[in-house]
Structure prediction request, 332 residues.
Amino acid sequence: MMQRPTWKHEDLYGVVDIGGTKIIAGIASDDALLATKRISTDALKGPDDITKRIAATFTELKEELNLSCRTLSGIGVSVPGPLNTKEGIVHFTGNLKWVDYPVAERLQAECGGVSVYIDDDGNCAGIGEACHGAGKGMQHIVYITISTGIGGAVIMDGQVYRGHQDLAGEIGHMTMIPDGPLCSCGNSGCLEAIASGTAIGLQGRQLLLQGKSDIVARLSNGRMDEVSAETVFLAAEQGDSACQAIIRNAGIYLGIAAANLVHVLNPQAIVFGGGVMRQSAVLLPLITSEMNRHLFKVQQDRIQVKAAELGDKSGLWGAKRLIAGKSKQSNM
Prediction:
């Protein structure tokens, strides 16, 4: 039987990407994700339950890799913000319903004292794409993730721009429609409330409730809880004009948001990731067309609009870079 490889302590890192509906945890070396596992978020059970299950998942991954108990140099966590990255605190996240939660401290305690570092999920995914994916080789990119919510990262001169309070990159909370739909952050008319996967699914459920889409009714068996953003895209593909309008509207507002970012930041590229961008063949042309319509002529068709390349692993690669190369005293 082939013996499994042994790893030096400083070579391995725990990485985790916490999302509104799923969590992906993994163990990484400097140049590879060695093993990953996906679990459900189950946000209603509370944040302490989540940190306990993440710790248990790391234990399972270590057993899978036949690792000894003192091997991880640290843990990097990608989590929705806004955050205090220095103190490891999540100030607020609408999709998880966390308020001032000390996730780094709690996860460190669950993992036997290993050092834990956190960053905004948009920043982590953006860093991952900038270093290993669609933005590789570029110094100036904006990353936008569209899934349960909408997040992002601003990378200028090869570095994440964090701003005065470490809160830059909250792209999903740009106001697009004053007095528009209520957002999970408490404001109205945010991009997230219009074009996220959650928002698209909600608009699909409204069609079902109002009896305006026979196709959505058929795809969901008439059940509200069966209507998601995926349902809306599928119905649109099957010719449902109301669902096509929902997607077109989302693409327009994403394009306007992209144009605003180009005017302020002048990046080389805007990279779109997240689960909703599995529909990139539909969305990217809409976004690109609307973006160019709002740009100066000298900018039109000169800003790349790209789909992310790392899939649901971009946040893990970014989380790894939070800790890679740092010397830690604590072991797991």
Observations:
- Residues 241-265 form the longest helix (25 residues).
